[in-house]
Amino acid sequence: MTGFRGPLLVAVSGPDDAGTSSLVRRLGRLLRERGVTVVTVHGHGCFLCRRLPVPPRVRETGEPGGGGWARRASDPERRGPRLRRVHALLEAAELAARIAAARRFARARAHGGQAVVVTDRGPLDGLVRFDPPASSGTASAFCRIAAGYALTLLVETGPWARPVRGREETEGSPAARWGRYRSWSLRLTGIARLDGARAPSLVAGAALERILDTVWERERVVAEPEPEPAGERRHVVLSVYDDADDPAHRGEGPLLAGKVARRLAEDFRVTIVTAGRRGGTEDRDGIRYVRLPVGRAGPRTGRLLFLAMLPFAARRIRHDLWLENFTPPYSTSFLPLTTRAPVVGIDHGGAEAPWWRHHVPFFLVERLGLRCYRHIVVTNAADGSVIRRLSPRADVQVVPNGVEQPFPDEARLGAGQFILFLDRIDTWVKGLDLLIDAYDRARPPLDLLLAGTGPPAEERRLTALLAAHARGPEPRIHWVGPAGEARKRQLLRDSAFLVMPSRHETFGLVALEGMAYGKPVLHFDLPALRWMRDGGDVAVPPFDVAAFGARMTELATDTALRRRLGHRAGIAARHYTWDETTGRYLALAHRLLDSPAAARRPRKRGASSWQTTR
After folding, report:
1. Helix (H, G, I), strand (E, B) or coil at 422
2. Mean pLDDT within 489-498
3. Does the keyword Glycosyltransferase apply (predicted)?
């Protein structure tokens, strides 16, 4: 059986109009008792028939009166008068319009549940009434309407059916009318015959059983995933503002997007939508990159323009699944409202972002936007709790970031020449002012190295801060600028421990990288960083500068303590591998795309220079 989409369409047909109307009322009551949404449509002729209960006699020019209707009814090769053909097409058009309206109404009332539209009389009754030639346009119109029905219940009452007032003259004798029912029912599909001579309750029970069987059969057929076309793989799109290939943007978002894209490319076609100074597309390593031309607008305006363009990109890029990295501080883009494909929002700690620094309450837009997403991924349990509170209906999964495993030398545990801060230069968010103040108060025996880059304004602010705390002829706080991959690995190997004095953190990928090298991590006890507990970390009360400086001095002077903590950090880091992280994204993609709901969902198609079909 073919799987019909939307509400199930059922017709109750037969010569006994009074009996079919009674059966429709019984079926509506029985189906509603079983939790099915039911909408009934009464198809007793077009509006002309309802205004003129007795159809007028129509004769062709020159045809003798008296038996014209009966003769045309018995002669299938005659098309009948023109007025009769127009009348038949008018009735077919009105029936189709009423069915379409009833199905929309039933879909709205069902709210995703089972819905059935039952029509009292259907296209079979129209064919019997007008009895057009099988090759005529009138017959084709009624047959097209009948093709949309999942089931037609034909109540067989035989030639003794009670004639309907006004139609015994126009449609011939009951025997002739019943003969036309039998003839036309053989030409249509989905006909279920019911014995109308039985008690009404038994007829209703048999009809109900046929309808429920059709509902269950349709659900079974629709639930089976459609076979994927040969040679065509499903398409997954990842969107992230920062480009992982840009050395100025090495945050968690672009790094995660690159790793996940390469893993998903094993089973799917993958496209990464990101920002650029110029628009365009390119293919690299089996992944297509689409760059939206918003980079020249600056970091803040560019992010806003990127979010504004994402819905248009989603409308133009054919896709089966979209993974959207939220873009702080603006966060969500309401993308699920613009596509029927599943959308997974990936939150990197934006739910608790310090929005007040931007003087605009972006959190109001974010809280409204989060309710549009049915699937959200976060990197730590604290953000997961926040998202579940803001969007109770969402399926929230915690998938931590991963790290490359460098296999640190056990003999070097506890060693190190300096204290290392390795992150983006953002004085307030990353707590650089707190770090410099704590170091200046405690004066630990090891120098402090700051590695990283940031916006020009933040770098100027850091320069002024270092100049204000400079003491002696040789400063002990050194800002070494950007750290590429090779330089970063060298700094991690040679450092004694890492410091993370952030006021706000998402996951703390830098901390995980330091743990992989067997380095302890000193940080404020933020909820987003509690995944490090008992993993070689040292946590102090949030923003307690004196306690931070004291623990910094303790770690700098106690080599044995650093060795013990570094050993635990290295063991803990082994549980955070990129293979595990990307594997969970791959499993999520398969779960969403291989489910029955994904099989029913039509694929998004577009046509433009952003088209990603190959």
Report:
1. strand
2. 94
3. yes
Rounded to whole angstroms, the Cα distance separating 280 from 290 reads: 6
Distance CA 57, CA 73 (A): 13
Residue 162 has pLDDT above 60, yes or no: no
- Answer positive or negative: Cα dihedral of 536, 540, 542, 547: negative
Output b/e per residue, 309-348; b: 16+ Cβ within 10 A: bbbebbebbbbbbbbbbbbbbbbbbbbbebbebbbbbbbb
Nearest to 514 by CA among 578, 381, 379, 419: 419
- DSSP letter (8 states) at residue 421: E
Within 10 angstroms of residue 274's Cβ, the number of other Cβ atoms is 25
- Tens of pLDDT, residues 207-260: 888 888 887 777 665 555 445 555 578 999 999 987 655 544 556 778 888 899
Nearest-CA neighbor of 269 among 231, 303, 304, 295? Answer: 231
Beta strand 151-156 with 269-276 is unpaired
Greater confidence (56 vs 289) lies with 289
Instruction: Say if residues 179 and 227 touch (Cβ distance below 8 Å).
Output: no
What stretch of H or E contains 185? helix 174-185
The phi and psi torsions of 471 (rounded to 5 degrees) equal -135, 140
- Phi, psi (deg, nearest 5) at residue 327: -110, 100
Residue 342 DSSP SS3? coil
pLDDT of residue 4: 46
Burial of 424 (0-12, 13-18, 19+ CB in 10 A): middle
Most confident of 205-209, 575-579, 591-595: 575-579
Q: Are 255 and 509 in contact (CB under 8 A)?
A: yes
Domains of the chain: 8-53+81-223 (3.40.50.300), 235-402+589-600 (3.40.50.2000), 411-573 (3.40.50.2000)
Beta strands in 482-534, from DSSP E residues, in sequence order: 495-500, 521-524
Q: Helix/strand/coil (H, E, C) string of 528-586?
A: HHHHHCCCCEEEECCCCHHHHHHHHHHHHHCHHHHHHHHHHHHHHHCCCEHHHHHHHHH
**Residues 6+ away with beta carbon under 8 Å from 331:** 347, 350, 353, 362, 365, 366, 369
Which residues are CB-contacts of 416 (< 8 A; sequence separation ≥ 6)? 446, 494, 495, 496, 497, 519, 562
Distance CA 373, CA 344 (A): 7
On whether the CB atoms of residues 208 and 28 are closer than 8 A, the answer is no
Question: Which letter, b or e, does each residue of 355-394 get, where b requires 16 or more Cβ atoms within 10 Å of its Cβ?
Answer: beeeeeebbebbbebbebbebbbbbbebbbebbeebbeeb
Residue 80 region by backbone torsions, left for phi larger than 0, else alpha for psi between -120 and 50, else beta: left
Q: Is the pLDDT of residue 348 over 80?
A: no
| Percent of the chain's residues with pLDDT above 90 | 27
Question: Is the backbone of residue 175 left (phi > 0), alpha (psi -120 to 50) or beta?
Answer: alpha
Residues 6+ apart with CB under 8 A from 88: 126, 130, 132, 138, 141, 142
User: Rounded to an integer, what distance in angstroms lies between the CA atom of residue 295 and that of residue 302?
Assistant: 6
Total residues found in the chain within this entry: 614
Distance CA 154, CA 141 (A): 20
Distance CA 207, CA 20 (A): 11
CB 477 within 8 A of CB 448: yes
